[in-house]
């Protein structure tokens, strides 16, 4: 009997959860960061970052398919024992809570600057938390349906980035390859955090209905994210000069300010309101998986009480303290640096452990046959 049979997700839901986790707040600042580091060669860093993310994602699937009904917490417990499993649950819990707080706080900060400048931060946090908790408490299947719905509703969003290109200048990106490889390689360090989100595959794999298609799923999810990043990078580089783009905090939103209709002037505000749905597909899985890790620590089957507790704690903190720009950057750095270890190093380390374990078992079987 399947352990998670009542909560299975389809391949499309698997793809959209991973893709939604990757296309988050980094999409708004990525053009500026790429321009500062690699100039107009930033698109090459995106391609290299995609290749690394796809390779790591395939490694995650290779690890998880060995024990298809286990999450990474079950796998570590199986390989290293009970206390190692509990330690892993604590580490992943801390990571998901930190990531959730960082993404939520950044989204609230952007909303305050562009839309709700007079609204207290804790009220905006509460407005974001209410629907998030409703989805996060309901399980992976509901999350998958929500992520898939938001994905289909957002298919027209790239057209908004194409609209400003009527005032673009091709000379801004020429020559297409300048050969500044040192800057490109340095920019790869910035693209790696932007692709974070595929690590949820460690927890989604047991819920996937057709696990043999997991390899295809992670490639499609990462490729969709790469296409979005490339579109944003090229649109920004074509519209802004290399010197201009570094002056904007959120160049993607500033790019949309030039779009005007006879009945609507501030189209960027409308787009931001819509983009919050996309951002919610980034922070909602983080809250759900944080609740899952907490439930594993306490031995409870239901993760919903822990979702309430984590969301309530974050709201209570926001009433008394909300980070400024410097604090937000520290939160994002903490999340990205810990993500680089957990997402990019852990899969290869586990794959190596499984390979060594197989060799030891094979050697023991061979010795047993010889002795027999």
What can you tell me about this protein's structure?
The protein has a single domain (7-371), classed as Up-down Bundle (Amino acid/polyamine transporter I), CATH 1.20.1740.10. 73% of the residues lie in helices and 0% in strands. It has helices spanning 11-22, 26-38, 42-64, 72-80, 82-114, 121-136, 140-153, 157-162, 181-194, 201-204, 214-239, 251-256, 267-298, 304-320, 325-344, 346-371. The protein is globular. The model has no long low-confidence stretch (mean pLDDT 83). Keywords: Germination, Membrane, Transmembrane, Transmembrane helix, Transport. This is Endospore germination permease. Belongs to the amino acid-polyamine-organocation (APC) superfamily. Spore germination protein (SGP) (TC 2.A.3.9) family.
Supply the number of structural domains: 1
Order of helices and strands: HHHHHHHHHHHHHHHH
Say what oligomer this is. single chain
The rough form would be described as globular
Contiguous uncertain segments of 5+ residues: none
Count of DSSP strands: 0
Radius of gyration over C-alpha positions, nearest whole angstrom: 22 Å
Query: So what's the CATH class?
Result: Mainly Alpha
Going by CATH, the architecture would be Up-down Bundle
N-to-C terminal Cα separation, in Å?
Answer: 36 Å
CATH topology-level name? Amino acid/polyamine transporter I
Largest sheet: none
Helix content: over 70%
Which class do the helix and strand fractions yield?
Answer: mainly alpha
**What is the count of DSSP helices, taking H or I runs of 4+ residues?**
16
Keywords: Germination, Membrane, Transmembrane, Transmembrane helix, Transport
GO biological process, one term: spore germination
Organism: Paenibacillus oceani
Protein name: Endospore germination permease
């Amino acid at each position: 009997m399947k352990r998670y049979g009542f909560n299975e997700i389809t391949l499309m839901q698997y793809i959209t959860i991973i893709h939604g986790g990757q296309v988050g707040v980094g999409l708004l600042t990525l053009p500026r960061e790429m321009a500062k580091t690699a100039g107009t060669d930033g698109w090459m860093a995106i391609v290299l970052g995609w290749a690394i993310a796809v390779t790591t994602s395939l490694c995650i699937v290779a690890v998880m398919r060995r024990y298809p009904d286990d999450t990474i917490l079950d796998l570590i417990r199986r390989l290293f024992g009970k206390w190692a499993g509990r330690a892993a649950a604590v580490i992943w819990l801390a990571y998901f809570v930190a990531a959730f707080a960082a993404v939520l706080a950044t989204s609230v900060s952007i909303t305050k600057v562009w839309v709700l400048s007079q609204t207290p931060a804790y009220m905006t946090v509460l407005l974001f938390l209410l629907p998030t908790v409703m989805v996060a408490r309901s399980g992976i299947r509901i999350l998958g349906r929500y992520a898939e719905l938001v994905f289909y509703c957002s298919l027209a969003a790239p057209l908004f980035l194409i609209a400003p290109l009527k005032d673009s200048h091709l000379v801004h990106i020429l020559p297409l390859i300048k050969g500044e490889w040192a800057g490109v390689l340095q920019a790869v360090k910035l693209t790696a955090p932007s692709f974070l989100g595929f690590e949820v595959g460690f927890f989604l794999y047991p819920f996937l209905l057709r696990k043999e298609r997991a390899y295809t799923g992670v490639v499609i999810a990462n490729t969709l994210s790469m296409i979005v990043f490339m579109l944003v990078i090229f649109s920004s580089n074509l519209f802004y000069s290399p010197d201009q783009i570094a002056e904007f905090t959120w160049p993607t939103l500033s790019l949309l300010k030039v779009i005007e209709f006879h009945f609507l002037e501030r189209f960027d505000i409308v787009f931001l309101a819509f983009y919050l749905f996309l951002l919610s597909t980034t922070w909602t899985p983080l809250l759900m998986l944080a609740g899952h890790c907490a439930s594993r620590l306490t031995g409870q089957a239901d993760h919903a009480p822990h979702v309430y507790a984590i969301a309530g704690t974050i709201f209570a903190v926001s009433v008394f303290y909300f980070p400024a720009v410097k604090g937000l950057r520290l939160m994002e750095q903490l999340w990205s640096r810990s993500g680089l270890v957990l997402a990019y190093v852990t899969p290869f380390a586990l794959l190596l452990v499984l390979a060594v374990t197989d060799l030891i078992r094979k050697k023991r079987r061979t010795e047993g046959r010889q002795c027999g």
